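hey so u asked for the seq, here:
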Amino acid sequence: MPLNIGMTGMILLVLIALLLFGPSKLPQLGKAIGTTIREFRSGTKELIEPEQREEKESER
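ran it, structure tokens below
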């Protein structure tokens, strides 16, 4: 589990989210979070790859 959150903690977080956003908004919220994480990963990958190429070229 991420951040050492146990199963009880995850259930508690889901219940709190359900109370705050309601059952109709929860799927939209999950999709938005997933999209944001995917874009963040691709953005960081684009930043890291050129640096790794430069390091490999400088080692030669």
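The mean pLDDT is 83. The first helix runs from residue 7 to 59.
lmk if thats what u needed
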